Amino acid sequence: MRQKAGHTLMGMFVIRLSQLLFFLSTAQIVVAQQRLFTNQQHFSVEDGLPQSFISGIVQDDDGFIWLATLDGFCRYDGRVFKTIRYNPKENTGLAANAINNIERLENNSITLYYSSTQADDFNLRSFKVRRNSTRSQLAKIPNAKWQTNRVGFNTSNWFFMMANHKGMGWLNSKTGKVYYANRANG
C-alpha cells in the first residue's frame, strides 16, 4: 500500500509540474504575440507640412514641435501645422523659404540657417525674426571656411575651420573678437 501511495504522490507531482511548465510556456507565447502600441505618427504635405524634406526639428519650451523645410518653417501643436514663409512685405519675417538647419537658443528662440552665409534668430513665441549679423562678421575673416557652427544654445561663440588645414577659429559675436587655435599656438 505504501508503495502505491508514494507512486501516486509522485505521479501527482509530475502532473502538476508538467501543467505548470505548459502554462508558463504558453503564457510566454501569448505575451510575445501581443501587439506593441507606440505613439508614432507619419505626416506628409497632405497633412499640412510645407514640404516633405525636413531639415531640422526642435521642441520649444511650450511643448510645440518646430520643423524646418526647404519651403518654409512650421509649428506642430499636436493637431495641425502652422506654416511660416518668406513674405517680402514683412521686415521681421523669414529672409527665405529654404531653411537648411535650425539650432535651439535660450529664451525660447532658435537660429534659422538659410545658407552658409545667412542666418536669423527667430523668437518662437512672438514669431519675429532678428537678423543675425554674425555670418557677415565671419565673411570678413580671411581664410575662414564657411562651415560655421555655434556650439551650445547659450553661447555667443561661432566656430569655423581655416583654409588649407591651418587650424580653427571662433568668433565671439557679442564682442566681435576672433580667436584662433592651431599647431603654432598649441
Structure overview:
- Strands 1-2-3-4 form a four-stranded antiparallel beta sheet, with no helix packed on it.
- The longest helix has 31 residues, at 2-32.
- The chain is built from two helices and twelve strands, in the order H-E-E-E-E-E-E-E-E-H-E-E-E-E.
- The mean pLDDT is 80.
- Strand 11 (168-172) and strand 12 (178-181) form a beta hairpin.
- 20% of the residues lie in helices and 29% in strands.
- It has 186 residues and is α+β, with helices and mostly antiparallel strands.
Computed over alpha carbons, the radius of gyration is: 30 Å
With helices defined by DSSP (H or I, 4 residues minimum), what is the helix count?
2
SSE succession: HEEEEEEEEHEEEE
Distance between the termini: 94 Å
Strand order of the largest sheet: 1-2-3-4
Q: Share of helix among residues? A: 10-25%
What is the mean pLDDT?
Answer: 80
Structural class: alpha+beta
Instruction: Report the principal-axis shape.
Output: elongated
- Quaternary state of the chains: single chain
Give the low-confidence spans: none
Estimated share of beta-strand residues: 25-35%
Structure described in brief:
The protein has 186 residues and is an alpha+beta fold.
Walk me through the topology.
Layout: H1 2-32, E1 54-59, E2 65-69, E3 72-76, E4 81-84, E5 101-104, E6 109-113, E7 119-123, E8 129-132, H2 134-139, E9 149-150, E10 157-161, E11 168-172, E12 178-181
Antiparallel strand pairs: 1-2, 2-3, 3-4, 5-6, 6-7, 7-8, 9-10, 10-11, 11-12
